[in-house]
Sequence to fold (192 residues):
Amino acid sequence: ERLGDVQQQAVTFGQIADVLQKRGQYDEALQIYRKDVLPALERLGDVRERVIMLGKIADLLQSRGELDEALRIRREEELPIYKQLGDVHAKAVTLGKVADVLHKLGQHDEAMRIFREYVLPVLERLGDVQHWAVMLGKTADMLQSRGKFDEALQIRIEEELPIYDRLDDARESLICRAKIGITYLARGAAGD
Fold:
């Protein structure tokens, strides 16, 4: 089997699975990712593409509510590879996804700790303003879900929204403003 054929096979099957996923055929997409794409990437020895594929699988599992398996993949497979590759950015983004899963599993304090102690400082240090704003928003979402409306509002108004405005990202700015309004409604304080 020639490497070029294996590479083309991985790409083609990956594209088929991506289409199936977009059509909502998650079982079929997952089967192709696991049985066709991952083995091809392993034969090629393409560590970077393999870890990206693992992330797609974890995303798919997470969207289907298979949180424990998504968390296992992220912690036991994705994170060690990003550490081995020295990819600090990908590690921070993946830890953000770990925190999302932990939050959904009810481990709010651990999720918040990961965001505050690792994800946000790393993204800020790397200058990835867009991802930093997204993670600030997720932090605010977590706070709001726990009834910490004032903290959530502070993050959205003082940190997240100014970033989207500076980036001239009208869509994210609008979403953030809507979330600010929703938070005010949920808080229900006098004057809100």
About this structure: The CA atoms of residues 13 and 35 lie 10 Å apart. DSSP finds nine helices and no strands in the chain. The longest helix spans residues 3-22. The chain has a mean pLDDT of 93.
